[in-house]
Specification:
By secondary structure, the protein is an all-alpha fold. Helices cover 84% and strands 0% of the residues. The chain contains two helices and no strands. It starts with a helix and ends with a helix.
């Protein structure tokens, strides 16, 4: 999944300025989005 690699890059950047809790919440939201509309996420 292409979005997974992009997500890792975004998380890596965010962990430098935000707490892990925010990252976990963001990851959870991304997983929910990908499960309902994977094609839309990959298109972005």
């Amino acid at each position: 999944m292409a979005w997974a690699k992009e997500c890792d890059r975004i998380v890596e950047r965010h962990t430098k300025t935000r707490s892990n809790l925010h990252v976990i919440e963001a990851m959870r939201d991304l997983k929910n989005l990908s499960s309902s509309s994977t094609s839309d996420v990959e298109a972005v």
